[in-house]
């Protein structure tokens, strides 16, 4: 069976009631655009010729309608090339594989997204952006065999054959390119030897690479040891209040792997507030059918903003009165007409919910139901 994988290492969520962070390495969670830098080996190569590029439609065979024509060496976690100015690419280390974030400081997530999604980069938009490095996986680590198959809003289907990918890189390194011969030789050596460094040694490698590169546009993300749960939660809260996103935790002896792994955690402060139920929506059949004819979730009003709240509801919370079951089956994922109450909820009830942050439109993100307010 083909092993499922991602393009980059992804983090699990940190739960302060279950996880002990003491001894893990902490860093700020940067709110930018996650990118793999391939050392510039694909710079100028047609995207369709790169054996890990996101070029296929949902069937995994036909080409997508829109593909950025040329690779730059910078790849999003979804396998798309990032079109950056030539002067920016020139400032990145040549012939080394790096994992990092294109970042422009607190509160500039949308700024970075706007700059990096352009087909033709604009110099003035990139002047605030730097590449912040927190990983140095080898080519062999990034390009391990497996199937990348993302669903939902992002389509990325690609079978990764490590030998094909490494041969492709070796061929590129054998040709004259935008990197000196010494860097080409060093990069070629890493194709033959996969050291798979533990994270603590990986950080030392990152420091050495950035120091040797000597460019303010490519910087190592600082890490410190966590001494207590209170320390990481306080730092996450301070970063959140300053407009940042939270903290990252990683075990010092862990080894980079292109998949979501429990040895790396993201710590995001959660806020809670109250909202008023103004309606209900029907459950979707989904793969298992367990929510068909059930309550999909609540439609709530929070400070004049209407949004759906479904995460966090138990099976008991999702029960409907008998007369509403067929209504819910006919309106999967849609507002339920003429339904003003369930065995648990009624329109007008006030519920408490948790959320991570607000979208640009002011809607709570990653909202989850906590409890109904008891006014007795």
CATH architecture descriptor of the largest domain: 2-Layer Sandwich
What CATH first level of the largest domain would be assigned?
Alpha Beta
What separation lies between the terminal Cα atoms?
Answer: 56 Å
In round numbers, the mean pLDDT is 90
Strands, count: 20
Radius of gyration: 24 Å
Overall 3D form: globular
How many helices does DSSP assign?
9
Q: Can you give a write-up of this model?
A:
With 376 residues, the protein is of the alpha+beta class. It folds into 2 domains: 264 residues, 2-Layer Sandwich (D-amino Acid Aminotransferase, Chain A, domain 1); 102 residues, Nucleic acid-binding proteins (OB fold (Dihydrolipoamide Acetyltransferase, E2P), Beta Barrel). It contains 9 helices and 20 strands. A hairpin with a 5-residue loop joins strand 18 and strand 19.
Keywords:
single chain, 376 residues, alpha+beta, OB fold (Dihydrolipoamide Acetyltransferase, E2P), five-stranded mixed β-sheet, 20 strands
List the helices and strands and how they pair.
Layout lengths: L3 E2 L4 E4 L11 E4 L4 E5 L36 E3 L9 H5 L7 E6 L5 H8 L6 H4 L3 E6 L3 H4 L3 E5 L5 E5 L1 H12 L7 H12 L6 H15 L4 E3 L3 E2 L3 H13 L5 E4 L9 E8 L3 E12 L12 E8 L2 E5 L12 H9 L19 E6 L1 E2 L5 E2 L2 E5 L4
Helix pairs in contact: 5-6
């Amino acid at each position: 069976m083909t092993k499922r994988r991602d393009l980059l290492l992804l983090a699990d969520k940190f739960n302060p009631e279950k996880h002990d962070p003491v001894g893990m390495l902490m860093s700020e969670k940067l709110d930018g655009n996650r990118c793999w830098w391939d050392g510039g080996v694909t710079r100028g190569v047609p995207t369709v010729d790169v054996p890990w590029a996101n070029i296929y439609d949902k069937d995994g065979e036909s080409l997508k309608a829109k593909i950025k024509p040329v690779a730059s060496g910078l790849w999003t976690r979804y396998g798309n090339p990032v079109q950056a100015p030539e002067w920016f690419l020139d400032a990145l280390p040549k012939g080394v594989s790096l994992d990092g974030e294109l970042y422009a400081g607190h509160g500039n997530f949308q700024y970075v997204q706007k700059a990096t999604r352009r087909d033709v980069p604009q110099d003035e938009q990139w002047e605030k952006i730097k590449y912040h490095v927190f990983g140095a996986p080898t080519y062999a680590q990034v390009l391990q065999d497996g199937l990348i198959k993302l669903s939902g809003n992002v389509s990325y289907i690609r079978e990764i054959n490590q030998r094909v990918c490494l041969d492709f890189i070796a061929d590129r390194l054998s040709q004259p390119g935008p990197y000196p011969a010494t860097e080409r030789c060093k990069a070629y050596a890493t194709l033959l030897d996969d050291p798979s460094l533990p994270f603590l040694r990986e950080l030392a490698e990152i420091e050495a690479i950035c120091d040797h590169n000597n460019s303010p546009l490519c910087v190592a993300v600082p890490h410190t040891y966590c001494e207590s749960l209170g320390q990481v939660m306080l730092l996450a809260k301070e970063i959140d209040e300053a407009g940042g996103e939270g903290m990252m935790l990683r075990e010092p002896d862990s080894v980079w792997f292109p998949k979501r792994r429990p040895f790396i955690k993201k710590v995001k402060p959660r806020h809670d507030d109250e909202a008023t139920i103004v309606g209900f929506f029907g459950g979707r059949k989904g793969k298992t059918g367990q929510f068909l004819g059930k309550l999909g979730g609540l439609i709530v009003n929070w400070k004049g903003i209407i949004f759906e709240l479904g995460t966090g509801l138990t099976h008991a919370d999702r029960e409907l009165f008998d007369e509403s079951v067929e209504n819910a089956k006919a309106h999967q994922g849609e507002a339920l007409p003429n339904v003003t109450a369930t065995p648990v909820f009624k329109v007008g009830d006030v519920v408490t919910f948790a959320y991570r942050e607000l979208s640009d439109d002011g809607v709570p993100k990653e909202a989850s139901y906590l409890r109904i307010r008891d006014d007795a």
